[in-house]
Every structure is written in structure tokens, then in C-alpha cells.
Amino acid sequence: MSFSLVKSTAVMALLAIPSTVIWAYVVGGVVIAIGLVVIFLRGDWPKARGLDKLILFGPLFYAAPIAAFGTEHFTLTEAVASIVPAWIPWHQFWVYFVGACFIAAALSLVTKIQACLSASLLALTFFLFVALMDAPAWAQNPRDRIVLVLMLRELSFSGGPLALVASLTGQSREHVTHVLATIARYFVAIPVLFFSFEQFLHGNHVPGIPLERVTPAWLYGHSIWTYLAAVVYAVAGTLLLVGKQTRAAATSLGLTVLFVELAVYVPIGVVERASLDNGLNYVADTLMFCGAVLLLAGAMPRSRRFT
Asked: In the predicted model, what is the mean pLDDT of residues 118-137?
């Protein structure tokens, strides 16, 4: 009797979620499942030591949100098309094209099939988002902190896959690897330092990526998570900017963002499970930022003190 009640309750909860949200959950979940299978079947997990085990999840944490966002290009086509600059022709075509590319790139990252090519194209795509949409929007209203946060967020989303390209380039092209890793480091460090400053100023807003949403009053700890993230961001961001203990700094930063994801955004996602704007997108956004930081950690040189 109790099992039937639980089953019927679960079915009702599922039916209450719009199909646009369900499809994003499904595609993102499939990518997570594939990524976990690859990590453990390839034998990467037992080979990694210490916090290097966390770095293994960088591609997965980046790919699953990309797949979910790519799905939204098909379920919310008109809404996504509305943010494409007016001077670019064929809005719907580009929405579908980018959505399909996001899903394909996500599968590529977690399976490691043509991962270097996919990471290169992702880095270029997000850089173009910054150059063609975010930077012009900020130039029109430079006092809008949210617009600046969004621009820097996209910049960090470009830096993550760029760091992966550096990791996959290998020792045969050492100079190219160093240049790509350095650019990726700046693409992550600068946003992190600005996010730290914003989180100190707006402690009642959600942590991780300091957007306009206020942290729900029902959430345990409330503002403490934002201030905790701000402190770690300040230290790790400074180390990344000056190029000191970069692997340890990026890994610690990734661990902090993951903690914020579990403590803040997963509960928000559960409560707002039927919403993209207030639920899934916040969860996916922060997880993707965590993935970008961990991808950077994987490209940073090892320190003798780092284990």
C-alpha cells in the first residue's frame, strides 16, 4: 500500500514538471550517466590520487549542463532566438545549430571522442558570445552589474574548454600548451576575482555566480555560503592571476563551487524542479562553472606540495 502511494506521488510530481524542463533533465542526466561509466571503466579513478580524483569530473560537470542548455535550444527556440543580435540572419537556424552542437560537444567531452576539437569549438563559441552579445550589452549599460557578471561568466565558460585543449595538446607542442593554459587561466581568474568582490558586497544574494536572485530565507546557513565563497574566490583568484600554486588554487576553487552547488543550488533545484529560470538553470549554471574551474585545474602544472 505504502509503495503504491509513493509510486503515485512520484508520478504526479513528474507530471507536474513541464516537458520543456523534463527534456533538459533527461538529456543532461544521460550525459552524466555516460560520463560516470567512462570515468570508472577507463580506469581513471584508481589511477588518480588525492584531489586529482575531483579533477576527473571537470569534463562531466561542464558537459552535462551544456547538454541541458543545448536541449533548451529545441524546446524554447523562440525565447533563445530573441537574444540573437538583430544583425545576424536566420535566427532559428543558429539556435538549432548551436543546440545540436552543444549536445554533440557534451557527448564528445565525456566520451573523449574528438574531445580536443569539441573543446576548441566550445571555447570559440563562448568567446564569440562575449564579443558579439555580452560585451556590446555591457557597453550600452556599464553600470549594470548583472550584465557584467553574465559577460564574465561566459568568459569563464570559454576558459574551461580552452584549458582542456591545453591539456590535450601534450608535450609535443609545449609552447602552444603554455600559451593556451595561460589565456585560460586569465579567462577564469578575472571573473573569479570580480565574483568575489560582488559576493562581499551582496552577501544576501546567491553564491558561486553572483546573480540577482536573493538566497531563499528557508535555506540553511543563508548568507554564510556567499561570504565563504567570496573568501575562497579572493585567495584562489589572486593566486591564479599571479600564477602561483595554480593547480592547488583551481582545485580548491572547484571544490568550493561544488560545495556551494550541493549546499545551495541542489536544494533550490529540488524546490523549483518544475522551473527552468528559477531551478534547473541555476543548478546547471553553477555546475558548469565548477566544471570550467576543474578543467583549468587539470591544465595547470603540478606543484611538489600539491597531492
From this structure: 95
